[in-house]
Design brief:
heterodimer; A: mainly alpha; two-stranded antiparallel sheet; 4 strands; B: 267 residues; 6-stranded mixed beta sheet; 9 helices; 12 strands
């Protein structure tokens, strides 16, 4: 064998110390694996215990899908922010506050509805910016800064509500929103009525006694969820900004040294999270028809739990929007599905807590696998 | 030429001082890097090496003194500006994210872009994967796949990845912060070889270390820092390995320790 051929052989041959891994193992290492496995498990459980209860009929599906969609919208925001290494505990309060920002100007100050909705979005995003600005400026943990805003916004929501309406609820907003064609089209009710009417005529969807289909459209919140998840997922996995999000969360210092505008990335994600919370709030007000001071209570934790079940690391730098969506789906299925079974619905939280614990243990394993090198490096350091 | 007019230097620090509050981190340090040389910056812990690197990299601005690139004074406001001028720094933490893939790490902060459907700017992942694998192969590292998390690579491989990345992005000056500190003998050897390869490609290297045995074989000239001051710059022809070690002030103490230990052994 001549020298040139052996050299060619060396460059073409894969390193003999590189082990082949099965595609199955590769799947196992994806961030969303845990949540997909969890979803399958949950569906299997409810298939067994509530399979014939109507939970998997079209109207049953719509009811848990809608719960999942609401949570999914904020889980997407929480997930992306967590990947960048920050938390926002104020999103739950932001939901209530957004509702008030829509309701108060529209009901008591005589604003047109579209203006009050726009005002709510602008206001929430400004608050998100403030959250982010305070976090990057003071370098305090976002946990503390947003915890403060969790209380401030909840308090303000209550103050506004009692000041203007003498109660903790402002009602009648739904009809007002419905009267505005743009706001109604974007946020209220469901869509694709004709499709479902046609499906009902074709006998593919059940009919009510009056001839209407049992489900007369896809709730808009579901479409919003899909749009937000698709957009955020695309942004994370395909764009430059998405790459920056992972780097910022993975190692703040590295990101700085690589010339990435760390503060801008973080602040814009706080704004995005606030946008998600506001969207939740507006959709809920449009659907329920009222704004109330206790809306979105504990939603910040549910969003974070959904993201963690979806494989997002609490320490940042790792996670997926798809995973967070499956996390939200688990929530929806369990919360709604449990009432279809004979199980006492008080078990709902127990189940979710256990799910969270499992997910965190699983994530911990992933991190120690991928971050094994850290240990390796410190070994080398002590050995020298 | 031996006196070195300023055109001969690709990078110069002239009388640089840097203070942090009451602490004098660097005082009147001069460092001149000639084109295509490996310039070793030696010093014990606390000698001011890190501050000097960060000044070169554009992280810190000097409180006094001048920073020149090719005879032209510069005043970097961010590491980005230094990078754009071809000054690439490979820090000890390597600026790698363990949980991210080889390809994404390789292009961190300098993502290759393409247009999806001709309008939406997205990362060109295929290009990133091809290039990162090819560049690493040139350095003798074969990765399992460009999607492999960097955390699964060895310390030496990661060091090489960081250096290969800097070279790929057109580094004219490569600043290496203790690249061999955490490595074993063989891996250190690979990194030294890589420094040699870089020099052959005409890249000027500033090699920071406190290990004279790594610095002396590869270095063309040596600057020794001690407690924030420069002890001078020496060409390899003008100084022996032992003298360098002595200047770093570690030598006298180590010799004392050796004497003491031997004295005890013979006693």
């Amino acid at each position: 064998m001549s020298v040139t051929t052996s050299q060619a052989a060396i460059t073409n041959k894969p390193d003999e110390r590189v082990r082949r891994i099965s595609p199955w193992r590769g799947l196992f290492n994806r961030p969303e694996f845990g949540s997909i496995a969890g979803t399958v498990l949950v569906f299997a459980l409810f298939g067994i215990f509530a399979g014939d209860s109507g939970m998997f009929n079209l109207d049953g599906v719509m009811s848990w899908a809608q719960v999942a969609a609401y949570l999914g919208i904020i889980a997407v925001g929480a997930c992306v922010l967590m990947i960048a290494g920050e938390f926002d505990l104020s999103i739950g309060s932001m939901i209530g506050f957004a509702g008030m920002m829509v309701a108060v100007p529209a009901m008591f100050l005589g604003w047109p509805v579209w203006a009050s909705v726009l005002f709510a979005f602008a206001g929430c995003m400004a608050l998100g910016w403030l959250n982010g600005y305070l976090v990057v400026r003071t370098r305090l943990p976002s946990f503390i800064v947003t915890l403060a805003f969790m209380f401030i916004l909840r308090g303000l929501t209550l103050v506004l509500s009692t000041h203007f309406s003498n109660s903790t609820i402002v009602s009648g907003v739904g009809d007002k929103l419905g009267a505005d064609p743009v706001v109604h089209t974007l946020f209220q009710g469901s869509t694709f009525h004709h499709l479902f009417a046609w499906l009902a005529r074709a006998g593919l969807v059940g009919k009510l006694p009056n001839g209407e289909p049992v489900v007369n459209g896809i709730p808009k919140v579901l479409l919003w969820w899909l749009a937000m998840a698709g957009g955020a997922g695309f942004m994370l996995s395909r764009t430059r900004f998405g790459n920056w999000v992972f780097i910022v969360g993975g190692d703040n210092n590295t990101a700085k040294n690589a010339g990435i505008p760390v503060n801008r990335v973080k602040i814009s994600l706080f704004v995005f999270t606030a946008f998600c919370a506001c969207l939740f709030g507006v959709l809920q007000v449009a659907d329920v028809g009222s704004a109330a001071a206790d809306r979105g209570l504990q939603k910040e934790f549910e969003a974070i739990i959904a993201a963690v079940i979806g494989g997002t690391l609490l320490t940042g730098g790792y996670g997926s929007v798809l995973g967070a969506c499956f996390g939200a789906l688990i929530f929806g299925v369990v919360q709604v599905g449990i009432s279809f079974t004979s199980i006492d619905s008080d078990w709902y939280r127990v189940f979710l807590g256990a799910m969270l614990l499992l997910a965190v243990l699983f994530n911990h394993y992933i991190r120690s696998y991928a971050g094994r090198s850290h240990a390796g490096r410190s070994h080398a350091g002590t050995a020298k | 030429m031996t006196n070195g007019d300023s055109h001969d230097y690709i990078l110069q620090l002239e009388g640089i001082s840097k203070f942090f509050g009451t602490v004098i981190s660097l005082q009147d340090v001069t460092l001149r890097l000639r084109r295509g040389e490996v310039h070793c910056l030696l010093g014990d812990n606390g000698a001011g090496k890190s501050t000097l690197i960060k000044t070169l990299a554009g992280v810190h601005r000097p409180d006094r003194g001048r920073y020149l690139i090719e005879g032209q004074e510069v005043n970097f406001k961010s590491p980005r500006e230094a990078l754009d001028r071809g000054i690439a720094t490979v820090y000890q933490d390597l600026a790698l994210v363990p949980l991210m893939s080889v390809a994404r790490n390789f292009f961190a902060g300098r993502e290759p872009m393409r247009k999806l459907f001709g309008v939406i700017p997205v990362m060109d992942m295929k290009y990133a994967e091809d290039v990162s694998v090819r560049k690493l192969a040139e350095m003798g590292i074969h990765v399992r796949s460009p999607q492999q998390p960097v955390g699964t690579m060895s310390g030496g491989e990661r060091q090489c990845l960081a250096i290969a990345r800097a070279i790929h992005f057109g580094a004219r000056v490569l600043i290496l912060d203790e690249p061999t500190a955490a490595l074993g003998v063989k891996q250190s050897c690979n990194v030294l070889k890589l420094i040699h390869t870089a020099r052959e490609r005409g890249i000027s290297v500033i090699f920071i270390t406190h290990n004279v045995h790594h610095a002396y074989p590869i270095g063309d000239s040596f600057t020794v820092l001690n407690r924030g001051k420069s002890m001078g710059t020496f060409l390899k022809s003008g100084i022996s390995e032992g003298e360098v070690l002595e200047m770093m002030s570690g030598s006298a103490e180590i010799q004392g320790l050796i004497d003491e230990l031997e004295g005890r052994a013979t006693a």
